[in-house]
């Protein structure tokens, strides 16, 4: 059965592809001037939230699901990517 631990990563991947494919015309959506600097601003703890205003909603939802997945890492088996495999 598909649990939250399966739905969140699949949702992140599906929404990433949906956002990309639905804005594929021409040069595509230029995330380098909005989502890119916004994501970097999170790491400096000075979030530039205004950069996400006007970003297509599929990218916004993708970013939320992506952050949800990252937040889950310490509490789910995903943490094993940082620890030795073997004993599960
Ligand atoms: C804060 C977290 C995240 C942000 C801000 C983010 C941002 C983005 C952006 C801007 C794109 C579009 C790239 C383009 O248009 O060329 C994208 C695409 C994509 N993302 Fe994410 N992402 C995040 C997390 C994740 C995670 C955790 C996954 C997978 C587990 C993921 C999977 C994908 C996939 C499959 C695509 C489509 C592939 C592609 O465009 O080449 N993303 N993401």
Automatic annotation (TrEMBL):
GO terms for molecular function: electron transfer activity; heme binding; nitrate reductase activity. Keywords: Cell membrane, Electron transport, Membrane, Oxidoreductase, Transmembrane, Transmembrane helix, Transport. Residues 11-85 form the NarG-like domain. The chain crosses the membrane at residues 57-75. It holds the Pfam family Nitrate_red_gam. Its main location: membrane. One of its GO terms (cellular component) is plasma membrane. GO terms for biological process: anaerobic electron transport chain. The keyword Transport applies. It is found in: Cell membrane. It comes from Streptomyces alanosinicus. It is a multi-pass membrane protein. This is NarG-like domain-containing protein. The lineage of its organism: Bacteria, Bacillati, Actinomycetota, Actinomycetes, Kitasatosporales.
């Amino acid at each position: 059965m598909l649990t939250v631990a399966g739905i969140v990563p699949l949702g992140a991947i599906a929404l990433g592809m949906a956002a990309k494919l639905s804005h594929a015309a021409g040069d595509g959506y230029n995330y380098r001037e909005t989502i890119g600097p916004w994501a970097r601003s999170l790491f400096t703890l000075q979030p530039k939230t205004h950069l996400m205003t006007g970003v297509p909603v599929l990218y916004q939802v993708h970013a939320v699901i992506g952050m949800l997945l990252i937040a889950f890492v310490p509490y789910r088996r995903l943490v094993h990517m940082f620890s030795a495999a073997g004993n599960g």
